[in-house]
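Exam prep: given the inputs below (a chain plus magnesium ion), describe the expected output before reading on.
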Amino acid sequence: MGINAPRGTQDFYGAYMDAVLELEATMRNLCDDFGYNEIRTPMFERLELFQRGVGETTDIVQKEMYTFTDKSRQAREFALKPEGTAGVVRAYLERKMYAETQPMKLYYLTPAFRYEKPQAGRFRQFHQFGIELFGAKGPEADAEVIGLGYQMLKRLGIKKVVLHLNSLGDLDSRKKYNELLVNFLKSKEEYLCDTCKERMVKNPLRVLDCKVESCQAVMTDAPLMLDNLSEEDKIHFEGVKTLLDEMEIPYEVNPWIVRGLDYYTRTVFEFISNDIGAQGTVCGGGRYDGLIGEMGGQPTPGVGFGAGIERLLLTVANSKGEFKEKQKIDLYIGYIGDTAKIKVMGIVNRMRTEGIRTVTDLIGKSVKNQMKYANKINAKYSFIVGDNELETGEVVIKDMETGERDTILVTAVSEYISSKK
Ligand code: ATP
Ligand code: MG
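Solution:
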């Protein structure tokens, strides 16, 4: 028996690959328009980076990471990156980007790895697009980041998505609120699911977004962070909302959005699709003013988001239908006979040099099958070279879509195609 791909992984090819490439190009153009530069960090990092950067109490660190030691005698532990932010923060500090002009605006497109139960929209290797904005503490930064997320969905043609917005307060107000929340949870402990009984001790905030119905019922009466913001937190949150209104970005305040990661402060948000079932969060992020300090840097504000590419594509497919392979070939050149076969290799080579995307037969197909192939690969034009064409230097070029034909010199083909592009 052959060897299968690891569970929860995918091979990208054909029409889906085209869709991924198009989506990535959309992201890159979008980031250019907003003044964000790409950063690529390693696929694996020291395990401690994620323990500190993602947070010890998160599901990611506790259950989901792919960890390993390499062949070094030092027995260091590494992990495949489970998300994009920690590596970017490490690079920001290690490469002293904080000493450059601020704010620093970065984006990434990266694979990420989590040991989870595979299902629709949930993989063990998936891909993330994300942005990070360092060194800007005002609500303008939050609004810009959310604005980029909103534009992203717009450019992808994704419509049925709602922006859910919340504030978790700064680290001080959250500490106070945590006490209130834990007291409440203790009084309701008997109604909580087993995971939430654990969360109550380790990461009480997460109980708020537990998906178990009985927990949700209990939490409708829970004290909310939004009602316990400090004066400054409130001003910041109001600021963000005013700017979103000004930018004509609709949102719903949702006090139950807490995000999975420990490092968020103040603004948190999720773009949630009603269209792709339970795995509805296509993009989530927020402010994390405590993170860079936590990772050993000078306290530096940060705000950003991460979006799952596979989930974005699921949403795109749902609103636009099946993915189609792109038109990639301008010209198919067929041949009849051995002399023509050799000459055609020369013509094809010249066409390609001139930027005409050209294909010919490589396996000795009959003329009929050559033309079938030209159709199959969706070539825009075609012509066939036989003895006659070799003698006159003229070919009959056919528009494969309309069936229209023109007789032209073979030396004029590239100009002919370019002029019609
Ligand atoms: P979920 O609640 O669905 O597990 P999460 O809170 O773990 O999501 P984040 O850590 O915020 O997700 O990751 C950012 C984005 O990456 C998510 O919004 C989602 O689109 C995507 N994502 C997360 N885990 C997976 C996965 N296993 N497979 C595919 N996409 C994923
Ligand atoms: Mg998760």
